UniProtKB/TrEMBL annotation:
Disulfide bonds join C11-C14. The keyword Disulfide bond applies. The keyword Disulfide bond applies. This is Thioredoxin family protein. It holds the Pfam family Thioredoxin_3.
Length: 77
């Protein structure tokens, strides 16, 4: 199971990012635990300065803007 965190204040782009990840994981049959992190202190702790950010299994893989579908698919293998 991949542990995926979407970092952001809850803005539309952050919500879209979380929805896309959940949708693509379901379509690919990948088991994930998806968590939204809205605490600015926690987001800064990952070194992410622009949101949405995406962290997979403890590693930041994206920051700033909604990631495209192909990029998300590559994260989910």
């Amino acid at each position: 199971m991949k542990i995926i965190k979407v970092l952001g204040s809850g803005c539309r782009n952050c919500q879209t990012t979380a929805q896309l990840i959940a949708e693509i994981a379901k379509a690919k049959g990948v088991d994930i635990a998806l968590e939204k992190i809205e605490s600015m202190a926690e987001i800064a702790g990952f070194g992410v300065m622009s949101t949405p950010g995406v962290v997979i299994d403890g590693q930041v893989v994206h920051a700033g803007g909604v990631p495209d579908r192909k990029k998300i698919e590559s994260w989910l293998g």
